[in-house]
Amino acid sequence: MTLIESTPVRTDLCKAAPRAHPRPEGQDRYTISEVAAFTGLTAHTLRWYERIGLMPHVDRSHTGQRRFTNRDLDWLAFVGKLRLTGMPVADMVRYAEMVRAGEDTFDARQELLEQTRRDVLARIAELQDTLAVLDHKIEFYAGAHRAPERV
Asked: How far apart (Å, rounded) are the C-alpha atoms in residues 25 and 46?
């Protein structure tokens, strides 16, 4: 057994299957307008992500036009999930910086994601409480329509 075969490979897999890429690997060079259409983000947002360090090192064509890859699309999908959690942009940028820094930041990345998970669970609990109040009010009004009028 070689060293490569005995070294465990760490992969970062999400439970949900990733969205299929429009093009296969090796043919995955997308313009900013194609990425905007695929992701639902605006070209302005994509440029801003690049400017603030959330989407660094986007490849460029010989004419300077941005060329995104399937890996960039995967990253943007993950950033979209982070946005849905309510994670502040500064924390997303910090996370991106840690990813670029390498494996030495695994613990810090894990802690940031665990804190975000705790925040999401707290928001879910608040929303469940809010939903219970709404359900109670809906039941009240549904019952009020059935009650006879008093004269």
From this structure: 21
